[in-house]
Design a protein that fits this description.
Residues 1-16 have a biased composition (Low complexity). The protein is of the alpha+beta class and 543 residues long. It is 25% helix and 15% strand. A hairpin with a 2-residue loop joins strand 9 (294-295) and strand 10 (298-299). Mean pLDDT is 93; it is low at 1-13. The structure holds protoporphyrin IX containing FE. Protoporphyrin IX containing FE (HEM) is lined by residues 72-75, 78, 111, 113, 130, 132, 145-147, 152, 157, 160, 220, 336-338, 354, 357-358, 361-362, 365-366, 369.
């Protein structure tokens, strides 16, 4: 649809009790007093000065002065939509979560984003894309906070501030705003070579998607599912777009960044507005929950590794449809608070050290971004189920809590399910239970397992899986981005990493940069190419 086809207000006149149309017959103050005039301040005579006693003037200006909240520290630039998830029932044997019961339809909100640019940055920058889904399940909210790249830059969350500081604009001049083309980024990834796998995905066409509607999504970490018998499985989540995976060319991305910085935002909203509802299938790769948490030699707790789909096929478990645009960007897209730790009974985490850090980080950042501990009361964050927590008070508290005993068990406020010997109803037995996973006897250390040491085999496998045109794009992307570095030593160190990935890739980029190509310093491992990694030879679903 043409952008002009968009309705004037986008207003939702439906039954949502949270929507305030602000179109009543009378304008009022925030405290409900009818106003006569909102265009003239109260002055001593028509030529002033303006009087401090003008409450409406002060209230109007003060509220405006406080309209902005901090943008997200990462993923600041985003765009969202409402929809639903419909389960096929195929996951019932491995997970007892209601969201996966056959035919269960769960409302969702999805927010897509870039990672590094600020709120006003262009949509088509070369970057990773966020793909975060909040499922308002009947057992509470589950957030699948995913990216469009299946691996991450780092293996341990303690380095997250470092990679983000390296990727954000230089602190002296705040340049560049939304690209990986600079010294600190390449300095980091050439020193912390675990980042090479994620980086080659960024340099491939996956770094410049054609549309949010045409992106895969990946949970990255391995998660643990629990079935009705209490048996656990390890899984990796995949979103597969019905429209297939498509990218822009670099030239298109650059031009669109200037001509229409809102390209992806507009594309998503226009598609939904015109009834071409974007759709994905959710699938899982399933692994036995063995004590090693290793599959075919691949450490499932290392977030810089994939499991090729040829080794573990992605099995479809449901579909996602986005069918409603936001009514108000701030209330919904900006105020939504995703958290990798928002889990529901049947879905649990693993010990992946990146995931473990995320479990702390999201709530912490939202405390300052959303102004205190009560942001789950915001309409977009409220679960579509009963909330009966023990929380009290705090900034922006909207509930009027009754009762005199804000602790449990107690003998003052009536029955309490937590009292010793209390009868647990059927509903309560379905409550969240942490999977009873054995923690190996161990010593406190600050080190990675040796399985985390191989930074190049899968990076090379990705390269070897590409079609000739995709390889050509990757060479050009490295050459352009590295060409923007001022420091020659950084270019040389990154060329060394490229030599360890593939000598041809290294030689081509070195020629482009006018530098000599170094020899590999590690043995090159030839893992079998994985056709599913290629946008041209893979497909939304194998076959
Ligand atoms: C957003 C931290 C790794 C996906 C965020 C935010 C923080 C954060 C602080 C901003 C949240 C907000 O303001 O509401 C971290 C840390 C990580 C990490 C500390 C590693 C230790 C990852 C990984 C993924 C991911 C591995 C993908 C699997 C996202 C997405 C968003 C986000 C999609 C945007 C959510 C939204 O649209 O509101 N992350 N992150 N992050 N993160 Fe992470």
């Amino acid at each position: 649809a043409a952008p002009q086809a968009r309705t004037a207000t986008g207003a939702d006149t439906g039954a949502d009790p949270h929507v305030r149309t602000q179109q009543g017959a009378h304008l009022t103050t925030a405290t409900g007093v009818k106003l006569r005039d909102t265009d003239h301040s109260l002055k001593a005579g028509s030529r002033g000065p303006t009087l401090l006693q003008d409450h409406h003037l002060r209230e109007k200006i003060t509220h405006f002065d406080h309209e902005r909240i901090p943008e997200r520290v990462v993923h600041a630039r985003g765009s969202g939509a409402h929809g639903y998830f419909e389960a096929y029932g195929t996951a019932e044997s491995i997970c007892h979560a209601a969201v996966f019961e056959k035919g269960e339809t769960t409302p969702v909100f999805v927010r897509f984003s870039t990672v590094l640019g600020n709120r006003g940055s262009m949509d088509t920058a070369r970057d990773t894309r966020g793909f975060a889904t909040k499922f308002y399940t009947r057992e509470g909210n589950w957030d699948l906070v995913a990216n469009n790249i299946p691996v991450f830059f780092i293996q341990d969350g303690i380095k997250f501030p470092d990679i983000i500081h390296a990727g954000k604009p230089h602190p002296d001049r705040e340049i560049p705003q939304a690209q990986s083309a600079h010294d600190t980024f390449w300095d980091f990834v050439s020193l912390h070579t675990e980042a090479q796998h994620h980086t080659i995905w960024n340099m491939s066409d996956r770094g410049i998607p054609r549309s949010y509607r045409m992106m895969e999504g990946f949970g990255v970490h391995t998660f643990r599912l629990v079935n009705a018998e209490g048996v656990t499985s390890l899984v990796k989540f995949h979103w597969k777009p019905k429209l297939g995976v498509h990218s822009l060319t670099w030239e298109e991305a650059q031009m669109l960044g200037g001509v229409d910085p809102d390209f992806h935002r507009r594309d998503l909203a226009d598609a939904i507005e015109s009834g071409a509802f974007p759709e994905w299938e959710l699938g899982v790769q399933v692994f036995e929950d063995n004590p090693e948490q290793v599959f075919e030699g691949i450490d499932l707790l290392d977030p810089t590794k994939i499991v090729p789909e040829e080794l573990a096929p992605v099995q479809p478990i449901g579909r996602l449809v986005l069918n409603k645009n936001t009514t108000n960007f701030f209330a919904e897209t900006e105020q939504i608070a995703f958290h990798a730790g928002h889990l529901v009974p049947g879905i649990d985490v693993t010990d992946d050290p990146l995931l473990q850090t995320r479990l702390f980080s999201y709530v912490d950042t939202q405390l300052s971004r959303l102004g205190g501990p009560n942001y789950n009361q915001l309409p977009i964050n409220r679960p579509h189920t009963e909330v009966n927590d023990m929380f009290r008070d705090g900034f922006h508290q909207h509930a009027v809590h009754s009762g005199v005993a804000p602790y449990k068990p107690n003998t003052l406020d009536g029955g309490c399910p937590f009292a010793a010997g209390a009868d647990l109803s059927e509903e309560q037995t379905k409550a969240f239970t942490d999977a009873a996973v054995r923690v190996a006897e161990s010593t406190k250390v600050r080190e990675n397992p040796v399985s985390y040491d191989d930074h190049y085999s899968q990076t090379r496998q990705f390269w070897l899986s590409m079609s000739p045109v995709e390889k050509e794009h990757i060479i050009r992307a490295y050459t352009f981005e590295l060409g923007k570095c001022y420091e020659q030593a950084i270019k040389e160190r990154q060329l060394q990493a490229l030599a360890n990935i593939d000598p041809v890739l290294c030689a081509e980029v070195a020629t482009g940069l006018g530098l000599p190509a170094p020899e590999p310093t590690v043995p090159l491992t030839d893992l079998a190419p994985s056709p599913a990694l290629s946008q041209l030879t893979g497909g939304p679903w194998p076959g």
